[in-house]
Amino acid sequence: MDWYPIKKPTEIAEAHLIQAFLSGQMQVNDTLPAERELAQMLGVTRSTLREVLQRLARDGWVEIRQGKATRIKDYWTEGDLGVLRAMANQDEQLPENFIQNLLSVRLDLAPSYTYSAIKNHPDALVQFLEPLLDLPDEEIAYTQADWDLHHQLTVLSDNSIYTLILNGFKELYFNSGQLYFALEAARRHSRRFYTQLHKAALEHDPDFGKTLSRQVMAESIEFWQRITLKH
Question: CB of 75 within 8 A of CB of 44?
Fold first, then answer.
């Protein structure tokens, strides 16, 4: 039996408000309804609502103003990583091109953490990659392996900021990864990447690893564009 954690009222209310922001039901720079009215709309107590608003303010969604109505901030320019993490968990209301934009960010970051991983810990990377050279030809296996690889590369880079950034998108990575790796060509593409990366680590060649990563990450964006055109 699969067990799923029961969401708290604060989590449910927070998710409803974020969906309202992202869908345009509540607009940037609008003010939220009065506390009593908003609590009734969300079906929570006023104390629960205050906790939700504090969390949203912390992450850059809203601005709580003493004696004034709470303002919905321009979260694209005033938000922070909390906004990004929350967006990544909005399966029903992902902003347009969100995943493609994330892949573009990965294109910028992955070559750097790949270079550092090979430079700092090539032997550990070789050992990690060996099981990936003989994966079952299944989307779930490749999704898990690809996540594990990028996570391990960030760890071996010795820069934990890379790891923290990546961890914020774990759920989205698995959801979109299974769609991506449903393409046989995408699995074949990654299989070549793992083999060549293994070679770069064996030869202690971080420059080749960096170049390889940049090429493969760019090509993965092309694969994703092909997938989205079909849907």
Answer: no
